[in-house]
Amino acid sequence: MNYPNKSKGNYKKTTSYANRGMDLEALINESNKYYLETDEALIYKKPTEIGINKVVYKPKLVIKDAYFKSPSTLDYNGIYKGKYIEFDAKETSSKTSFPLSNIMSHQLKHIEKVIDHGGICFLIIKINEQLFLLPGNKVIEFINNYERKSIPYEYIKNNGYLLQYGYNPLIDYLKIVDILEEGGLNNGSGKEKEEK
Amino acid sequence: MNYPNKSKGNYKKTTSYANRGMDLEALINESNKYYLETDEALIYKKPTEIGINKVVYKPKLVIKDAYFKSPSTLDYNGIYKGKYIEFDAKETSSKTSFPLSNIMSHQLKHIEKVIDHGGICFLIIKINEQLFLLPGNKVIEFINNYERKSIPYEYIKNNGYLLQYGYNPLIDYLKIVDILEEGGLNNGSGKEKEEK
User: Do B65 and A64 touch (CB under 8 A)?
Assistant: First the structure.
């Protein structure tokens, strides 16, 4: 995806109201660009892996037949305060729950592995026009404890962290990561530190 | 790239002699697969980013016109012993030096940033049928101190670490990362720890 190479000043022109209509991926990419410019973190979206059936070489290299592969890791990764960070952004039109079919089974295994290796791992979920950061261990906990095929909105609200739409960056999800790393808030996600 | 889904036992069938002829990327992918199976590290090759000009949706989604974009980060990244790791693998047919044209200028800036953020960063260079792990700070040091357009073989030999071809994994580059993290060997790369 290409986004215009904005100068920092341009961020101010956007309003939080307008941003609500913005594509979730674009919101996060813009936030990552801001983090990169301010040197707070190096976080990139991994390109979608493609399988190539046919390329032509003349007059220049062009892919003529290819398909998207399904990912086995999460879409975004990088480094923040010396730590490995990896997450994915998902949106659902359902107002009552987040369907787990949005996450591949090997992605779920990957979330567990990243946590086991000491990385920061979470999902950003857009539901009911709200954005939540749901820690990876809360995703795994849900799957291990419930037989349901979707995570209820209430569970996300109680175990996740509401992300506010802002200006610089558009979504300051690293602020929530700081809270998580400090041990979480006392809102049901407060056990992070004890669990480590 | 697709590689056959080998069981662990299959690694033993390959010989170190045969591996020398193996494509560098394949060698590293197989080594990463081994690290993943043994749960030593989670390291993946980032897919090459493509720009898409045309897709068709019927009978199924197929990319009909696309091109490869040049990368701004390095090809491999992940987590090892809780730390962020990022590196690239490059080969040259030159026997006397490694041309810096192999690395994009924004990739060089990225190496500096990863180091600044506390990540492990290096290049694996294949030259003269030998593999070297050259720490990122040694790449930056060379560029800052010399006006040359290529890194001489002698510099790589003196500041890098020779990687042996093995079995499980095919290239055990994490063993060298351990040495680097412990402060490096006294072979000219021994100053890592002081420089941090």
Answer: yes
Q: How far apart (Å, rounded) are the C-alpha atoms in residues A64 and A6?
A: 32
Topology of domain A14-195, CATH: Trna Endonuclease; Chain: A, domain 1 (3.40.1350)
- Identify whether the C-beta of residue A181 lies closer than 8 Å to the C-beta of residue A190: no
Give the pLDDT confidence of A122-165 residue by residue, as tens digits: 999 999 999 999 999 999 999 999 989 999 999 999 999 999 99
Closest CB to B63: pick one of A46, A47, A66. Answer: A66
Show residues of chain B in contact with A61, CB under 8 Å. Answer: 67-68
Q: Quote the ipTM score.
A: 0.80
Residues of chain A whose beta carbon is less than 8 angstroms from a beta carbon of chain B are: 2, 39, 41-42, 44, 46-51, 60-68, 73, 77-84, 86, 110, 113-114, 116-119
Distance of residue A154 Cα from the nearest chain B Cα, in angstroms: 32
The token pair at B180 is 């680097």
Residues pairing with A65 in the sheet = A54
Q: What is the domain partition of chain B in residue ranges? A: 14-195
What Å distances lie between residue A157 and A10, A27, A126, B127, B181, CA to CA? 32, 21, 11, 55, 41
Q: Answer whether A140's CB lies under 8 Å from A110's CB.
A: no
Q: Are B12 and B18 in contact (CB under 8 A)?
A: no
**Residue A191: is its pLDDT beyond 50?**
no
**CA pair distance A43, B148, nearest whole angstrom:** 31
